[in-house]
Amino acid sequence: MGQAIREAGARVERGVDRGVVGVAGVVLAAAVGRPVVEGLLDRPAVGNWATLFVALVLQALPFLVLGIGISAGVATLLPAGFLPRLLPRRRGLAVPAAAAAGMALPGCECGSVPIARRMVGQGVPPAAALAFMLAAPAVNPVVLVATAVAFPGRPAVVLARLVASLLAATVVGLVWSRWGDHQVAPMPTPERSRFLATAQHDLIDTGGFLVIGAAIAATLQTAVPRTVIDSIADHGAVAVLALAGLAVVMAICSEADAFVAASLTQFSLAARLTFLVVGPMVDVKLVAMQAGTFGPRFAARFAPLTLIVAVGTSAAVGWWLL
Amino acid sequence: MTAARGAISVVVGTVLLRLALTGVYQRYLRVGMRPWLVITGIVVVVLGIAAVLRPDDDEGDDHEHDHHGSGRLGWLLLAPIAVLLLVAPPSLGSFAVDRANAVDIRAGKTTFDPLPAGEHDLTLLELSQRAVDHDGASLEGATVRLTGFVAATGRPFRLARYQIACCAADAAPIVVRIAGAHGDPPERDQWVTITGTYRPGSAEGDHFPIVDATSITEIPPPEDPYE
């Protein structure tokens, strides 16, 4: 026992590099500098930004940790090749099956990114893993129930959200399997002994991108009043595009977006459906996390593709069902 | 680098736990999130301690870094922590009231039974919904107590409070106009509890309902600033 502690102590000493000193320095500087910066907060815009930024990060962290836990569990507990065998062999079936499997993951979009990355590492075709990543935040029971609560007496909205999200995820997956597969770098599956290290990497690396995304979203929300889009609520197609843009900019949790959509009463239901379909798939916070997980080049292609497909499918489904 | 990651985790997890246990998290998230924040905080702290005690071999580290060079971005996780330590931002205030989409008062078209005589604590949402239900018939003869912050000064001044579904980023304001105040009206962003009666007909035509106040008390911001 004593020896183990000594060994750990020795490891700590070896591990205490400039990084740890840096972390301590940042924390100390923040604590000491507090009075200086407090004055800044009296400026309403700065205070508003800081509140939104902190809220976005805090709200995402539990879901991120849940996703990382599942991801690390998949990496260490499931035998290699287990997940791919669960999916149909034919890619045309595997992609929609993976999208539908998203119904089993309660949570929001921040958790599904590390899970999708791990699925690719386990040998799941990237197209199927990406379809899962896009569908899961929008079609799981928690989000669908929240949608039903936000739109009382309008079950068609819940159905339309489910159908449009599954459809969009499947179409993006199939398009990607045809033209984009090679652009997803498969993650190496870590050895079992490295469970903690895996989770650690996932948390800090994905978390860093989450922070970038949250900062961008807080800035846009503070700088651009949401009411700006009110003036174009009556212009059919423009209104749809406006709410797609709002979903990208606001970057709110898929468990909460139905309540925001419900408050956008000046917009048609079809336009609000676009908001509900686009938000869990493409927003500034999510794109930052995807860039961090799969690489910036991936995100630069994947995000625009997803946005176009999501707007298209929700417009079609909205026209059909709503 | 791994030890530094671990240190970041410990700092982040500790701040999460502190926010959850002191209740300050309610400025940013809805109330039910406390257990999830506690669990998350514990997991993150444990992960961090494990990483500090058992730093990875460098080989493994480089292996992951090669893909996207994202190892250094973990530093950014410290930014919100630094902001929290520096300023502990307040809950959303009057700045965003006119910039956000208001709550849809008429959603669900609730019908209310009349309030019994006496004083009643109402949320701004319930008052607004009662005001548009049969021209506020259910509020007749009742005295209401409302708590919110001053969103705009003047006479009548505006009292507001946000509804949140998940976090402050999805906040939607509800606004009530307060008339009948004597003396200097409270300052913008000051939290107040007002007692008064609903002025019938004031919510017609999508106007914010008016409450004629008999008393206005300035209060510190409540622990849970949202409805």
Describe the protein's architecture and organization:
- The complex is a heterodimer of chains A (322) and B (227).
- By secondary structure, chain A is mainly α.
- In chain A, 76% of the residues lie in helices and 0% in strands.
- Chain A is globular.
- Chain B is an alpha/beta fold and 227 residues long.
- In chain B, strands 2-3-4-6-5 form a 5-stranded mixed barrel.
- In chain B, strand 3 (157-163) and strand 4 (172-179) form a beta hairpin.
- Chains A and B meet through helix 1, helix 2, helix 3, helix 4 and helix 11 of A and helix 1, helix 2, helix 3 and helix 4 of B.
Quick summary:
The complex is a heterodimer of chains A (322) and B (227). Chain A has 322 residues and is mainly α. In chain A, 76% of the residues lie in helices and 0% in strands.
Provide the fold topology.
The complex is a heterodimer of chains A (322) and B (227).
Chain A: H1 2-15, H2 18-32, H3 34-38, H4 44-77, H5 82-86, H6 91-101, H7 109-121, H8 126-139, H9 141-150, H10 155-179, H11 195-223, H12 236-250, H13 257-263, H14 269-278, H15 284-294, H16 296-321
Helix pairs in contact in A: 4-7, 4-11, 6-8, 6-10, 7-8, 7-15, 8-10, 9-10, 9-13, 10-14, 10-16, 11-15, 12-14, 13-14, 14-16, 15-16
Chain B: H1 2-22, H2 34-53, H3 58-68, H4 78-87, E1 118-121, H5 124-132, E2 142-152, E3 157-163, E4 172-179, E5 191-198, E6 210-218
Parallel strand pairs in B: 1-2, 4-6
Antiparallel strand pairs in B: 2-3, 2-5, 3-4, 5-6
Helix pairs in contact in B: 1-2
